[in-house]
């Protein structure tokens, strides 16, 4: 691998910082000579603009500051501080030039913090708190609804179907967890550690089933495998059976059927994150294990798997949350889960509050799951070896039977999760093309893509903001609000949509009331029923995905990097953009990809929240799919799949071009090539 | 900075931007600010208030667009009033409730009594008194106070296999409880509104205990766990999985006109139940006007249009439903099934027993 990309600069330099670097490096205030060498005053170019809050020290001794030589043209003196103050290099003087002497400063270094006691709620943490609070709103609204049920549903549910709901839900979760873990981790392991025929294709093709919505794959397999379908038809023709009761065939419309469908479309979550984690593991770790006599199996179970565990768990949590909020598949397969019970209480018994209570129960499920996992690996942190020690693990060539086996294992999920459904959809689309090409598909596809792209960038930006603020200044409040907002993924879409409508409509109506009262002007609904509400709903819904992926890669960056950059005088933003983002490129891209595809498929929230006459591919498909008209829905579904493929392919291309680790889980933690230039 | 009062607001803004202090903030060169703007720009554009076209009417619809669009197009062609729609299967009433007085919606199209009752109960409707509507829609299919109006009706009929069930064995809903039908009945989920409303009508006519007995017996007669929509039940009969099903009439019409599905429909006989008694249970689709309706006149025009001959016969031909207006005949196909006695139980009664019926389904564990 050649180092085409310019080597990562270890010290991102400000163009004009050179003149003062030496002084910063010198132990600040450590030598009497140093103090005497510092300028004793800061000159302010004539009649400069002053902040009202500024308290300029005038001619006092300012031993901890230096006038920036390159900024003479601006009316502000540029001050440099100790390394602890974020943004010091770029900020103009405020009241930082206090009358403290260097002696005082040395004695109580933290007391002269430029922001005083407000430091904890300024800048990044404050922004993050606001954002976290806003994205919490829909969840809080759902909780609020849960306190206002029309009647108490629990006695009835408990007497009749609740246990069945819970049993089915747990069964579904257990099945999906097992299936996605098996497929996701095994394929990721094969693709990252071994070389076998087709590996380069499987590398990205294993992501393909991701683009197929779960309810669509459910329709397709029901069509294929039910009594009237071609598979059973062929069996009957072959063996001369005629009636259903003459032979046994597993019913696709059942709990195992639902589990299979979900596993087929959800395993890419685990695959994506597991692969990224395996790729980021350094050969040095594996070699150490080997040198200590670890067998291949123990290297996997005792080294690689535990190191990849946080990432795998994030993927698994996403798959399980998606399982919980799914309604289309379980409804079609007549599997009564808590989610279908929720809709029944809401729509059948006209009791939204009761539905929200079930949604809360779902959240409790998820919280417990995540909590258990976190408790079980408390006190463990997995930092990757830093730059100089990282070496890529070379893939072992598989031959003969082993290679065939590996190829088969990787091919099966692609075949059942993508090739067969795509083939069926294509057939239906061709058969019904005249009939179903009735809408302005270009506009609808554009709507879908635009909306998904905006939502993906917003969700990732919010994810980065929250994750980085946690890193800068972890506070319990922020952590709690991030956790709450991440739960949005587990709330069934239509309920979350109501959760979005409530605060938005409340804001709109109060603004309107205010304007009417004071200005006699009605603003109407500003936010509700706009694309903004949709983007917001998507962001909340998929924040868990974006945040999870971003945070996983952020956590892998050793805090030493931050310390080093900070000591070299970089601001928080500078560190983020120059060090973290390049290092996390893979995580950020992965997050954007996943959210984009998820938004393409998103249905229930889109239906309820969209503006008038606004269709996405998913809603267009739904008007037919809701009536089980699979043939008419085929063309739209195929388009969802195709448009969903675009980011998968783009991502692959961009990674190939960057010539780094050739996978979505790239890590730019310097490879040896990069280091040597 | 000195603010010159002779300058316009925009000029002053531009002065501020040109001021060295502002430039030194380097917003223009700040990558973060720029990228935030790039992300936010489309959102800001979406804030732009939608152009207020005088002639339009906004509809929240629980009916699929491919059914309603032809009718709305005809309305637009006739009156020049644009119809804006949002279609969803759930949540629109809640949206309306929260949007409150500022909601843009004028009408809500609903597909079952459950939605209708929920809308009225939520207090989002307003009464309409209109001669056209009242003369076109029979009294049993509209609210006394004019809060809601039925637009089409569908019979909940029984279909039986031509080959395996002799004619005359089943003539009532009650016959579905016969022990000789054990393992022969297919239905959709008991939680679906069509089933719930049928059960509610049984409760209204025969009382809860009798309804429970009946439902229990039907459950023991089921050939398979309730699944799929009504079309899937007919398909199952044609494939020999079961012999008897309860379906809505328009599914029969749709299958008979679809070349691929005609064979399924041909394998069954249609039975209009309870002809000697209370009549066949009917469910309806309907329309309500929202309390906040901003385009009330246009909305009334659309309601009148929907109840008129043209739209009524479009429903009849496109979706094989029974027109609500008595003198509009159903589609030729549907007419060929003959006249039948309809259950004239008030929809208010059905709405009243809905929740009870839904609970009954859980108690009997119909879907289990």
Descriptors for this entry?
heterodimer; A: 677 residues; mainly alpha; two-stranded parallel sheet; 28 helices; 2 strands; 64% helix; globular; disordered C terminus; B: 368 residues; alpha/beta; nine-stranded mixed β-sheet; 16 helices; 45% helix; 14% strand
Sequence-ordered SSE layout with sheet pairings:
The complex is a heterodimer of chains A (677) and B (368).
Chain A (H helix, E strand, L loop, with lengths): L17 H8 L6 H6 L64 H6 L15 H24 L7 H6 L2 H32 E2 L3 H7 L8 H12 L4 H10 L15 H26 L2 H9 L4 H30 L2 H5 L5 H11 L3 H25 L19 E2 L2 H32 L1 H4 L4 H32 L3 H11 L6 H27 L11 H26 L2 H9 L4 H12 L1 H17 L2 H6 L7 H9 L4 H29 L13 H5 L1
Parallel strand pairs in A: 1-2
Chain B lengths: L8 H10 L1 H4 L7 H17 L8 E6 L3 H15 L2 E6 L4 H8 L7 E4 L2 H9 L9 H6 L11 E14 L23 E2 L6 H14 L1 H14 L8 H9 L5 E5 H8 L5 H5 L1 E4 L10 E8 L6 H12 L1 H11 L2 E2 L8 H4 L11 H18 L4
Parallel strand pairs in B: 1-2, 1-3, 5-6
Antiparallel strand pairs in B: 3-8, 4-6, 4-7, 4-8, 4-9
Helix pairs in contact in B: 4-14, 6-16, 8-9, 8-16, 9-16
């Amino acid at each position: 691998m050649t180092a085409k990309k310019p080597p990562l600069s270890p010290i991102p330099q400000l163009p004009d910082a050179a003149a003062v670097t030496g002084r910063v490096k010198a132990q600040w205030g450590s030598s009497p000579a140093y103090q005497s060498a510092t300028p004793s005053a800061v000159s302010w170019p004539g009649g400069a603009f002053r902040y009202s809050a500024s308290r300029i020290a005038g001619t006092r001794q300012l031993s901890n500051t230096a006038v920036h030589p390159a900024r003479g043209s601006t009316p502000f003196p540029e001050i440099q501080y100790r390394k602890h103050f974020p943004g010091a290099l770029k900020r103009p003087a405020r009241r930082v030039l206090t009358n403290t002497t260097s002696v005082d400063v040395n004695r109580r270094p933290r007391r002269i913090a430029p922001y005083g006691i407000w430091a904890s709620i300024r800048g990044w943490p404050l922004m993050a708190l606001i954002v976290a609070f806003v994205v919490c709103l829909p969840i809080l609204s759902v909780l609020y609804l849960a306190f206002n049920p029309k009647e108490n549903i629990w006695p009835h549910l408990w007497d009749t179907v609740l246990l069945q709901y819970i049993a089915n839900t747990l069964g579904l979760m257990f099945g999906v967890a097992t299936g996605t873990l098996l497929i996701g981790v095994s394929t990721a392991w094969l693709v990252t550690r071994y070389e076998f025929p087709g590996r380069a294709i499987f590398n990205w093709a294993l992501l393909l089933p991701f683009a197929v919505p779960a309810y669509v794959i459910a329709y397709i397999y029901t069509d294929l495998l039910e009594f009237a379908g071609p598979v059973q038809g062929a069996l009957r023709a072959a063996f001369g059976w005629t009636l259903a009761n003459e032979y046994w065939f597993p019913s696709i419309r059942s709990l195992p059927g639902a589990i299979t469908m979900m596993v087929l479309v959800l395993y890419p979550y685990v695959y994506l994150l597991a692969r990224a984690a395996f790729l980021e593991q350094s050969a040095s770790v594996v070699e150490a294990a080997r040198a200590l006599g670890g067998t291949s199996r123990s290297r996997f179970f005792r080294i690689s798997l535990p190191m990849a565990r946080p990432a795998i768990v994030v993927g698994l949590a996403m798959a399980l949350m998606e399982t919980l909020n799914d309604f289309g598949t379980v409804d079609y397969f007549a599997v009564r889960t808590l989610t279908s019970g929720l809709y029944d209480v809401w729509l059948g018994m006209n009791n939204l509050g009761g539905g929200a209570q079930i949604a809360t129960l779902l959240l409790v499920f998820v919280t417990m799951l995540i909590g258990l996992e976190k408790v079980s690996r408390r006190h463990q942190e997995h930092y990757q070896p830093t730059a100089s020690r990282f070496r890529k693990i070379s893939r072992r060539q598989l031959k003969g039977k082993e290679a065939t086996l590996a190829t088969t294992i990787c091919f099966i999920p692609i075949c059942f999760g993508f090739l067969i459904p795509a083939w069926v959809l294509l057939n239906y689309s061709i058969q019904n093309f005249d009939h179903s090409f009735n809408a302005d598909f270009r506009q609808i596809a554009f709507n879908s893509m635009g909306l998904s792209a905006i939502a993906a960038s917003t969700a990732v930006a919010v994810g980065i903001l929250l994750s980085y603020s946690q890193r800068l200044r972890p506070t319990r409040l922020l952590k709690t609000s991030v956790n709450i907002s991440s739960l949005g993924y587990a709330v069934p879409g239509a309920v979350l949509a109501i959760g979005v409508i409530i605060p938005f409509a409340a804001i709109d109506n109060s603004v309107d009331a205010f304007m009417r009262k004071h200005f006699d002007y009605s603003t109407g609904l500003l936010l509700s029923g706009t694309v903004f509400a949709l983007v917001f709903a998507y962001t909340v819904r998929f924040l868990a995905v974006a945040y999870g992926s971003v945070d996983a890669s952020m956590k892998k960056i050793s805090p030493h990097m931050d310390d080093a950059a900070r000591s070299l005088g970089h601001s928080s933003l500078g560190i983020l953009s120059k060090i973290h983002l390049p290092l996390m490129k893979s995580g950020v891209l992965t997050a954007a990809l996943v959210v984009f595809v998820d938004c393409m498929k998103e249905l229930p929230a889109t239906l309820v929240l969209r503006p008038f006459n606004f269709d996405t591919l998913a809603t267009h498909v739904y008007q037919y799919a809701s009536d089980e008209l699979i043939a008419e829905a085929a063309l739209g579904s195929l388009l969802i799949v195709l448009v969903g493929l675009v980011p998968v392919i783009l991502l692959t291309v961009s990674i190939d071009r960057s010539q780094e680790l050739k996978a979505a889980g790239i890590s730019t933690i310097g490879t040896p090539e990069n280091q040597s230039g | 900075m000195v603010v010159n009062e002779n300058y316009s607001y925009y000029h002053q803004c531009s002065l501020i931007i040109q001021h060295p202090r502002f430039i030194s903030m380097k917003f223009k060169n700040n990558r973060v600010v720029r990228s935030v703007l790039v992300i936010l720009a489309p959102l800001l554009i979406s804030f732009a208030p939608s152009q207020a076209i005088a002639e339009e009417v906004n509809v929240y619809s629980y009916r699929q667009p491919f059914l309603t669009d032809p009718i709305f197009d005809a309305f637009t062609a006739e009156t020049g009033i644009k119809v804006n729609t949002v279609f969803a299967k759930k949540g629109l009433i809640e949206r309306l409730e929260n949007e409150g007085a500022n909601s843009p919606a004028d009408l809500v199209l609903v597909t079952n009594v459950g939605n209708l009752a929920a809308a009225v109960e939520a207090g989002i409707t307003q009464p309409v008194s209109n001669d056209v509507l009242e003369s076109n829609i029979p009294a049993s299919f509209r609210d006394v106070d004019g809060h809601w109006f039925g637009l089409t009706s569908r019979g909940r009929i029984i279909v039986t296999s031509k080959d395996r069930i002799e004619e005359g064995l089943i003539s009532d809903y009650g016959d579905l409880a016969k022990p000789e039908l054990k393992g022969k009945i297919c239905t959709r989920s008991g939680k679906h509104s069509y089933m719930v409303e049928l059960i509610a009508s049984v409760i209204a006519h025969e009382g809860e205990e009798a309804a429970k007995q009946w439902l229990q017996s039907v459950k023991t007669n089921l050939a398979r766990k309730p699944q799929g929509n009504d079309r899937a039940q007919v398909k199952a009969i044609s494939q020999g999985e079961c012999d008897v099903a309860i379906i809505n009439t328009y599914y029969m019409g749709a299958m008979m006109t679809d070349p691929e599905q005609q064979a399924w429909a041909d394998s069954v006989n249609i039975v209009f139940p309870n002809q000697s008694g209370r009549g066949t249970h009917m469910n309806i689709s309907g329309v309500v006007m929202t309390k906040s309706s901003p385009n009330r006149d246009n909305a009334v025009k659309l309601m009148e249009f929907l109840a008129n001959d043209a739209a009524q016969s479009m429903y009849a031909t496109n979706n094989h439903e029974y027109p609500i207006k008595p003198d509009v005949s159903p589609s030729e196909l549907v007419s060929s099934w003959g006249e039948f006695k309809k259950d004239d139980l008030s929809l208010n009664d059905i709405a009243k027993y809905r929740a009870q019926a839904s609970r009954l389904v859980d108690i009997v564990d119909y879907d289990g």
